Structure formats: C-alpha cells, structure tokens
Amino acid sequence: MKYLSSYFTFATAIALLFSFEPPSLDISEKFVQCLYNYPHISNSVSNIVYAQTNSSYSSILDMSIRNYRFFNLSSKPQVIVTPLEVFHIQATIMCSQRHGLQILTRSGGHDYEGLSYVAEVPFVLIDIFNLRQITVDVENQTAWVQAGATLGELYYTISQKSKTLGFPAGVCATVGTGGHFSGGGYGFLMRKYGLAADNIIDAHIIDVNGNLLDRKAMGEDLFWAIRGGGGASFGVIVAWKIKLVPVPSTVTVFNVARTLEENATEIIQKWQLVANKLDERIFIRVDVKKVNSSEPGKQTIQANFVSMFQGGVEELIPLMQKSLPELGLERKDCTETSWIGSVVFANAVLLGSTVNEAPEVLLNRSRFRPGINKAKSDYVRKPIPIDGLQGLWRLLYEVPDGELQFAPYGGKMD
Ligand SMILES: Cc1cc2nc3c(=O)[nH]c(=O)nc-3n(C[C@H](O)[C@H](O)[C@H](O)COP(=O)(O)OP(=O)(O)OC[C@H]3O[C@@H](n4cnc5c(N)ncnc54)[C@H](O)[C@@H]3O)c2cc1C
C-alpha cells in the first residue's frame, strides 16, 4: 500500500508532541490536547475523537458490542478514536503512552470476552471500523484488506470481482478481519485450504513506537506471531495481504436436522468417525441444541448437519451415501449455489433466518444481534462415546439456552 514508505521516519516527529498541556486538565483532556498538538493532525481530530462528553460517544461504543454481558459496564474508554488515516493511529499510540493510558483496538467487536473494549485500567479505544478498504487483484489472486473490514465485506468484494475465487475464513459476516485473522480464523473451506491465518502473505502493523511495518520490516518472527497469536499483543494491525483460493462456480449446501427420535446421537457418533476423513472439499458442521418435540409439552435434542461441498449435488450424494448413509441425505435436502451463495446460506443458518437473501446482506455490519452469551472452544481428539454424548444432552436440557457446535478438521488441518 502506498502510504507505507512515507511513515517509516515517524519516530523523528515524536518530540513535537510535548508542547504545553495545562496541568488542570484531566487525563482524557490531556490526551485529546496531545492529539491536537500532533503534527498535521489538528484539522481532523474533531472528526475522529469521542470523549465521554461527546453526544455520539455511546453510540460509537455500543455499535460493535456483540455481547450484552458487556453493555453499560462502569469501566468505559476514556476516549474513543476512530482513525481515518495511519497517522491517526500513530498519534494515538504516542499520546496514550504519554498520558499512561492503555490502548484497546477493536475491529468487529466479536471477542467472546469483550477484550477489544473492556479493561480495568484507564484506556483509549481505537475502533478501526473506518479503515475497511479492500482491493482485489484477480490476476495475482491476492487482496489487500484493511483490518477494520468485516468478513462479509471481504467475501462480498471478492465475489464482485470473481465467481471462482474465495477466501478460507469464518462464517459470521460481521466478524472483523482484525481480530479474526490474527487469531486463526476457521470456516467452511478450512479442510481444503487451512485457516485464514495460513493464507496471509503480508501485513501492515504499527508497533509500540509508532512505526508502520510491513512483513519485511517486522521480520518473520513477528509476522508468524500476528497470524494466530492475537494482533493486540503486538501492535495495531492496519491491513492484511491475503492469498485468495480457487472455488468452483457451483457448490452445494445443506442443513439437515435430526432429533434424538431420529437417531441424532448415533448419527453424530458415526459423523465423529468420518467427518475429518472425507474428501477435503466437504465440510459438515454439527450444531446441537434443545428444541420443542413434536410431542406436545416435551423437549428433545436436535442436531443440525450444516454443510458445504465444493462441487455439484450429483457428486455429493454418492459421496454421502458411501461415508455417512445414516444421515439419509437426499437430493431435495441440497441446494446448488455459488461460493458467495454458500456464505449467505451459512449466515442465514447462524441467524436462524429462512429467507432467501441477496449477497448484499453480508455488508450489514449490525446484522448480528447481540445477546447475553458465554462462548468457549476446545479440541476433541478422540471420538466422544455415546454415553458421553448423552451426558452433554443432559447438560443442554439443564441450561435455558445452550448450544454445542462441532467442527471437523482433517485435510489441510491435519
Ligand atoms: C457470532 C460469532 C461467530 C464467530 N464465528 C467464527 C467462525 O466461524 N470461525 C472462527 O474462527 N471464529 C469465529 N468467531 C470468533 C472470532 O473469530 C473471534 O472472536 C475474533 O477474534 C473476532 O474478531 P473481531 O475483529 O470481530 O473482534 P474484536 O473484538 O474487535 O477483536 C478481537 C481481538 O483482536 C484484537 N484486534 C482487533 N483488531 C485488531 C487490530 N487491527 N490490530 C490488533 N489487534 C486487533 C482485539 O483487541 C481483541 O483482542 C465467532 C465469534 C462470534 C461472536
């Protein structure tokens, strides 16, 4: 990206920051004053800085809170900065250090524990939602994506440029590329192409000294660390360069539900044995939750087998009949679509929507409705025996609104 070279000499400008700040100001006022003193920035500060007294402060803060557990906490950012340019981030880093404020960086705000906007010490929130430019290079099968872009914005933009290129990352369209790529990022293409982090080929990060570094300048150790180690531990990631992957023009999706009365437990048991060994073009996730039974007043457990196959239905059906006949998949359960159609489908499943939607829904950053939730991931290395699964179902009956999601590895992930 063009702006990189012009900011390498950034450190030389730091001394200019320390002009007069009246001692009577509180810490957030001093921080804002420091930004105004920063070279070349004063004209734009009022458009990117939200102190707690600003009338837009709460709406900017709440905009990307995806979990009601973290609404209305007493610990809020002293100031929110919504950078439009790299030097806005650099100025924020320097002024935060000067005034002893921690920095939290937020992209899509989907962190399960609110780590991008909750802290017990005074802090500044850098919300990078304005930095979401995406440039796709179809010929070289790469793209630059700014870290404030969501997965939905990335997938949509790729699909506007090519029907046979995709990117292997997560399902939920409102997840941010800033947190997701720096933590790994798994989704429906991972068995063939690995994680999002496996397909990053360059990045721009601003370090603690305010230097903007690309892959070469940061070195391979740091480049390795920000692809799985969590970006916030190392700086503020501005943009990623990603390798796009080939996808067929036709893929097939299905979402087949089976209750306990329809042998859900036994099918899951068999699924555990085969799902990671299937043709790497097929990904079958299992979502398990409590539902009302067809018998009035009773409840049961339902497993949804949610899948995407990189190919047509004629190839998928025999493959499933051979490997997982217990599911009883039929042609009528399947829909042929494009790769972007499969992304829309997977998001509809996630949100419980049955409407046939256009890909533009992927651009809606507020589509994921926040609820109160606690989420946790873990690895299952050996198949869970039937009585173990039945124990899990008992737990699901006990909690008001719990859900389990099983995602198979295998293929490139082994
Ligand atoms: C509804 C939902 C669906 C999900 N689906 C999937 C899925 O299918 N696959 C999957 O792998 N994961 C999934 N996740 C988990 C998700 O990928 C992670 O929580 C991810 O970290 C969220 O990224 P974010 O940018 O939206 O979150 P944020 O809360 O903004 O950020 C998460 C972390 O990354 C840091 N960070 C964000 N941006 C930057 C940046 N620019 N520079 C440095 N650090 C930064 C934050 O400070 C924070 O520590 C899902 C989560 C939710 C809530």
From TrEMBL:
Its cofactor is FAD. It comes from the Eukaryota. The keyword Flavoprotein applies. Residues 1-19 form the signal peptide. GO terms for biological process: cannabinoid biosynthetic process. GO terms for molecular function: FAD binding. Gene3D superfamilies: 3.30.465.10, 3.40.462.20, Uridine Diphospho-n-acetylenolpyruvylglucosamine Reductase, domain 2. The keyword Disulfide bond applies. Residues 73-247 form the FAD-binding PCMH-type domain. Pfam families: FAD_binding_4 (PF01565). Keywords: Disulfide bond, FAD, Flavoprotein, Glycoprotein, Signal. InterPro entries: FAD-bd_PCMH (IPR016166), FAD-bd_PCMH-like_sf (IPR036318), FAD-bd_PCMH_sub1 (IPR016167), FAD-bd_PCMH_sub2 (IPR016169), Oxid_FAD_bind_N (IPR006094). Belongs to the oxygen-dependent FAD-linked oxidoreductase family. PANTHER family: OS08G0158400 PROTEIN (PTHR32448). This is FAD-binding PCMH-type domain-containing protein. It comes from Phaseolus angularis (Azuki bean).
